[in-house]
Each structure stands twice: as C-alpha cells, then as structure tokens.
Amino acid sequence: MASNTVYLTEQEVQRIRTTVKENAKKRSELRGNAREARGAKDAISQATGAALMADMGSMTMDKAKESIPALAVGQPYPPCTKSVKELQPMKLADLTMETHHRGRQLSVKRASPVVMLTSRSWTMAQDEAGETERLELLLHKTRHRKDILDSNSTFIIKEPYFTLTEEGEPTLRIDHPSDLVVLPNTQDAQPLAPDAAPEEVEKRATSHKQKGNAALTKGDLPLAHASYTAGLALAARLPTPDLARDLHRNRAHVNLLLSQFDAAEADALAALIPSPPAEPVSDANDDASLRTAELNAKCYFRAGTAAYNLGRFADARAHFERQLSLMPQDKGATANRTRGGEEEGAGGGALTAVTYDIRDDRIRVAPVGLERAIVERTAKNPSLIGEVMGLYGDWDGGEGKGIESTEDGPVVDVFRVHDIVARNAFGAGSKDGQGGGASAGLWIRAAYLNHSCVPNAEREFVGDLMIIRAIKDIAAGEEIVHSYDESGDYEARQQALMTTWGFECACALCAAEKGDDAAVREKRAKLVREGDEFLKSAGSSTNKRLAIVKAKRLLAAIDETYDEKKYRGLPRLATRRLQQWLTAASARR
Ligand SMILES: C[S@@+](CC[C@H](N)C(=O)[O-])C[C@H]1O[C@@H](n2cnc3c(N)ncnc32)[C@H](O)[C@@H]1O
Description:
Elements lengths: L9 H21 L9 H20 L2 H6 L2 E4 L14 E3 L8 E2 L3 E7 L4 E2 L3 E7 L5 E7 L3 E2 L2 E2 L6 E5 L2 E4 L5 E5 L5 E3 L15 H21 L2 H15 L6 H16 L3 H10 L16 H23 L3 H14 L4 H9 L13 E5 L4 E5 L1 H13 L4 H5 L15 E2 L2 E2 L3 H11 L1 E2 L12 E2 L8 E2 L5 E6 L2 E6 L10 E2 L7 H12 L6 H8 L2 H21 L5 H17 L15 H13 L1
Parallel strand pairs: 1-14, 2-4, 7-12, 20-23
Antiparallel strand pairs: 3-11, 4-6, 4-10, 5-6, 6-7, 8-9, 10-13, 11-12, 14-15, 16-17, 18-19, 21-22
Helix pairs in contact: 4-5, 4-6, 5-6, 6-7, 6-8, 7-8, 8-9, 9-10, 11-13, 16-17, 17-18
The structure holds S-adenosylmethionine.
C-alpha cells in the first residue's frame, strides 16, 4: 500500500521508539531467569477488575483509545511445527523468562474472567499443580466470532512463549493461533461399544444429527459442527450410507457458514447420491428420483459456493452447471452460475494498528484487521495456505518455512502474513492504494505483479473486484507490470517504493530521472509542489480562464525541466496531475 506512513508528532514517535526499545532490552536481560510464582487470589482479582474495566470501556469512550492499538513487530518466531503428541508436558513452575519452550507443551484451564481488548485478550490460567499465570492471545483472539479464551475447555499451549507484556508484566503470549489447542469438552460423551448393534449405532448417530440440527437453528455453529462430526463417526459403521450422506450434506452447510470452504466442498461432494443417473427430472411422478435430484442439486450448490469462495471459479461454474442440469427450473441455480468468473479479494476487518518495526525502525499503520482475516481464512481453508505464503515477505518463516499443518490442524505463521500484507496488499476503491488500511485487501494473483514506473497495465476496482487493464499493447511473453506509486516527484516515489516494498526501482524512467542534475530534480519537485497547491485551490477558483492559464504556465515550466532527447518515449510523471486537470477543465468549458 502506498500510504501506510502515519503522521505522529515527533514526540509520539520518540515515545513509541523508546518504549519498544526499552522493553526489548529489558526482555533480553531477563532471558533464562526463573519465573516468579504468582499468588492465585491476587492474580484472579487483578484479572477480574481488568475485565470489568474493559467491559465498561467497551461501552464508553475508552474504546477509542484501545481501537488503534500500538504493536511492536519485527521479532518474528516460527509457529510450533510439531503435534501435541510429540511435545513433552511441562508445568507453569518450569517456565523461564523470555524463552520459547521448544519441544514442550503446557496444559492449563482458565481461572478468571477474560479481559477482552481490541487487539488482544488475556486471562489468568491455572495448571493441574494449582499454579497461576497470565495468558495473552494476540490479534487472532477469536474463533467463530467468540473469544477463544472464553471457554471452560482445557487449553494446550504448544511450545509456550513466556515473555513480558508491553507494560512489563510477565505473561504467556500466543501469537500463532495454531500454538493454542482447545481440547473439545468431552464431559457428556459416552463412547459406544465397538460391537454395538447397528440399530443402537443408528439411533445414536441420528440423535447427534438432531442435536446438530437444533444447534444450527439456534445459530450455535460450533456445536452443530461437532454434533454432525460425532454423528458421522458413528454413521460410518452402518451398512447403508444414507445417514452419513445426510450428515455430510448438513455439515457442508455449517462449514459454509463457518467459512470452512475446503471442508464444505469435500462434505458436499461426499453427500452426493450416485444413482439414479444425473438427468433432468421430467417425470414428476417419480418421487424418489425427484428427491435424489433435489438433494444432489443442494450438494452441487454447496460445493459451488465453496469453490467460488476459494477463488476456484471454473470449478464453481462446473458445480453450478450440474446443479442447474438437475433442477433446470431452479432460478437460484441460474443466478449462481452467472457469478462464476468473478475475482475476489480477501478483504475484511477495518481494524488498523500503529506498528513499530524493530527491523527498520519505522512506524507504520498496518491493516491488522486484514491480517487477522487472512490468518483466519487460510487456517480454515488449508488449500489457500500455499498460495498466500508463496507471496513475497521479509520473514520467510525460519524453521517453520513451508510447513502448513501438523496432526492438530493447519499452521499459519502470523508474522509471515504480516510481512506479506505489508508488501502485497492494496486498498480497494482507489488506484494507488491510498485511503488507509480500512479497505485494504489481498488479491493473490495481482500480488504477483511487479512494479514499473512505465507500466503496461493499470489496476481498477469495481467493488472488491480488481481489474488489471492493459494500457498499451503487450507482446506475448512480455511481463505485465503496473505502478505501485505514481508520484511525479522522483525522490518521493523512490522513498515510497523503498519504505513499503523494500526495493529501488531501476526502470528506464527512474534511470533517466536519477541521471538528472540534482538542481533540475529539485526545481521539478518544487514545481510539482506548486502544482499540487494550485490543484487544491483550483476547484474553488471563480475565474476558470485564469486558472487554466496558470495551469498551462506551470505545465510548461515542468516540461522545460525534461530533456527532450533523454525523455523521448518516457512518461513525464510530474506533469500528469496538471494534465488531467487541464483535460477535465477544458472539457467543462
Ligand atoms: C507485490 S510483490 C510483487 C511480486 C513479487 N516479485 C513476488 O515474486 O512475489 C512486491 C515485491 O516484489 C518486488 N518487486 C516488485 N517490483 C519490483 C521492481 N520493479 N524492482 C525490484 N523489485 C520489485 C519487491 O521485492 C516488492 O516488495
């Protein structure tokens, strides 16, 4: 994104820098020190008070204060790449300061209310030995729109990281969602004997299905999903597949609602009834085949919706075509089919944060809502992980590089997502990505396009649909390039490209501008600034004729700074905005 530099006062910048650096120093000095035990009673009452304050704050003005969180970034570490089974259990008493306890796992339960803040939530947790410690979850603190910590389940923390909060308080801190495993609440599960009679198995599986349906009606999607899954485990033991198909079909629907599109498509296809042959139903008396066609059409609709949301438009179209061929009279199917072929950006989440990156000492505004949406979407849909993680980012994942799952589920490195978003996201609704992080999105295919100041393509948006449009003839095999930053001022452009994307542009235009005399460049930059000032006031000018004369004069002055021969065939970016204004103003006259 071109405009992710935030304008803070020098004092504020210094304060953020100093705090983050001092914290980093303090943390490194404490590394390896033994943890100090906490008094359970005090710890719990501290969390209870803070939770109350946070709740009250969320209803009052304090929310605004927390709604732009400040986050220190640039000290990435990989997520745990082992399964819980492969890790050695440890106790809270074994924790040492500023340590990633590699190869270990910690089992705790929540012992206090959850303090829910915008970018993080925390609680006091207790292990079996009765020790208490603070546990904090960053950014990715919700699952199924519910705070993960707000649960009575057992939490397994994989390779726990024990550190200090920004305020200097010791805490267990979880950045990668996959480092926290929430054990299902198995209290009421009574396993069925392996040799139970099929009637008994069917009865139990049906009861899970009914429980799932009831949960779905109430909107309790996680419970509906768990119930259908429990039902499926039993239905697999039955001699006939009908109940399993029903459960798959229902779970496909829940998976769609949970944005688990990989699983939704797999469920929908597993629910297909293979016979009678998939033909249009012509004989209305044939109830059984009509019912089969209806059910299969439903499956194809769910599979199509899933594929569409995964950005696999050809597959989505194929599924919708099948739905349509089974139920030609179904108008919904026709509408769905026409949607296949649209491009989609993974938008979502207007939350922004001020970040201080320790690596380059810079303060930026990061669209952390987008990061969170991408982490959630990829973690729920593992088929997308490779595509997203293949994009360019500074942190390559370290030891976790290329690892997309463990036995416990998908693994998404949040630090890599952060860096990828910084280098690859664009703001929808404006060509240059200006407009802050609120409407930012990651368009995976477009993100593979490189920059040139002499582009052969431009991006445009229709809603969240990004269109890459050729602006000149492009030969077969020629690289398609667009401009990340169209600033007419060479220095400003180079600075934006370096700050946001980390490279120095070496295109023909930059080579020519770099070769210009410093005095010429300064003169041009000064005229561009003058032009910008002029454009700001030109709209309100009462004497249009005079304004046009002035614009033409400025344009001629900028033009003069370009050497005719050297700039032959190259765009004169510094003149662009004035040119555009003049064209529009002349047309209006
Ligand atoms: C949006 S990505 C473009 C795709 C990227 N090249 C890749 O392979 O994933 C932006 C990154 O590509 C590189 N890049 C893009 N245009 C470039 C150019 N003209 N010169 C050098 N590096 C460029 C920079 O590293 C930049 O941070």
